[in-house]
Structures are given as structure tokens and as C-alpha cells.
Amino acid sequence: MNKTSSLSVIVIIPAYNEEKSIGKVIEEIPALVHEIIVVNNCSTDNTALAAKKAGATVLTEKRMGYGYACLKGIAYAAQQKQQPDIVVFLDGDYSDCPNELLKIITPIEENEVDFVVGARVKALREEGSVTPQQIFGNWLACFLMKILFKSNFTDLGPFRAIRWETLKSLKMSDKTYGWTVEMQLKVLRQKINYQEIPVSYKKRIGVSKVSGTIKGTIFAGVKIIGWIFKHYLS
What is the pTM of this model? Predict the structure, then answer.
């Protein structure tokens, strides 16, 4: 049974060459979501067509970068006559489980917190869904946030929900791989109430643009650690 929400919920999905997975992602997003926004980020396949066919609003961002795509989706939402109450971000590679969206937004709906991160806990991860370098990098980033900012975060997971007004207050700026950690660092700096919710995580469809390459892994690591020390020193 689908639960309806008294709040307006939108989903933003950055997508780069996700033709084989994006339809599955959209189909499994609960009906309570008011609008699904897929930001086609320089795809060379039929990602945009597949997303549109599945019922999503499709935007085009020609500047390559995860952050660029997220910012495009936010700018679109800000221009609408009726703005959302909650924004959910998730990936388009089918590694997240869209049908778990309800438990991601519930703490916000119940006014417990303003920000929720879906934590990819080991018990709910499919074997092989996270690479060793991802596990180490994630641990290092969360460890640094713990000792520098007294953070309780254990993951930088992409599946997350945030109150719209809170998102606007963060003034997000990262254009590439530092997007997720920037959001969490600004939440910590502004002392915004947050929570982690354990979520399932599957092997993605296709090859990761970050952890699937040495260059992507190194660049993402440098960006993430850079953001942490930038916020600590500022």
C-alpha cells in the first residue's frame, strides 16, 4: 500500500549513461513523490529518452559533474510556482533502493530532523556492491568529520533527503565529487538536526564513473578530504 504524504516531495537524480538502469529506478520510486527530475549529464546513450519514457521530467546539464547536475535540479525546483517541502537525492544506477524512500523522508515529515542520510550499512549491502577503496575512503572521511566536527555520520551515501528550506540555506556550490560531503559538512557547521537511516545497497548496473576508475577514485578522494579541511580551517 502506498502512503500519501501531506508534504510535497520531489526526487532529483543526476544521470550519466544510465540508459539500462534509469527506468528501473523511476519505476520503483513510491507514488507519493510529486515529481521525479532526472538531470541528464552529458550522456552519450539514450538515458534522457529512457527517463522521459518512464515518466520523469528530464533536464539537460552540459557541464560534466555530479554537483553540476544536482545544482541544475535545484535551480529547476526553485523556479516552480509551487516549491517542494522535501528534496530526495539518489543515484540513477539502481544501486540505491528507491522503494525505501519512505523511511528516508519519515523523520523529516515527523519534524524530528531536517536532513537524513541513507547509511549503506554492511548488513544491508549486497556483496561486491562497494569497492575496497570506497569503504576506506568513506571510513576516512567520516572519521575526520568525527574528530574535527564531532559528527555522528558513518556514511556519505548518495540516497538522502533534506527539507527544501534547509537545502536553500546551505548554498551548495561543489560541482563534482565533493557534493555529498559538502552538504554534510554544512549541516554540521550550521548545527542542523540530522539522522542516518540504514538502507539497502545493490551492485550497480554498469561501471561506476568514480570508483570504477583509478583517476575517478583519486579525484573524488582529494575533493572530499579537501572539503573537510577547508571547512575545518575556515
Answer: 0.91
Closest CA to 107 of 125, 83, 86: 86
Contact 92/18 with Cβ under 8 angstroms? yes
Quick one: CA dihedral 210, 100, 190, 142, positive or negative?
Answer: negative
C-alpha distance across the termini of the chain, in Å: 48
Sheet holding 160-163: strands in order across?
Answer: 57-61, 35-41, 9-15, 86-89, 160-163, 115-119, 194-198
- 126-163 as b/e, with b when 16 or more CB fall inside 10 Å? eeeebeeebeebbeebbebbeeebebebbbbbbbbbbb
Q: How remote is the C-alpha of 71 from its chain's centroid?
A: 12
Place of cell 538531470: 39
Contact present, 95 and 201 (Cβ < 8 Å): yes
Mean pLDDT by 10 residues, the chain (234 residues): 73 97 98 98 97 98 96 98 96 97 97 97 91 87 95 97 98 94 97 98 76 59 84 81
Asked if CATH classification 3.90.550.10 holds for the domain at 9-233, the reply, yes or no, is yes
**CA-to-CA distance for 207 and 119, rounded, in angstroms?**
22
Domain ranges of the chain: 9-233
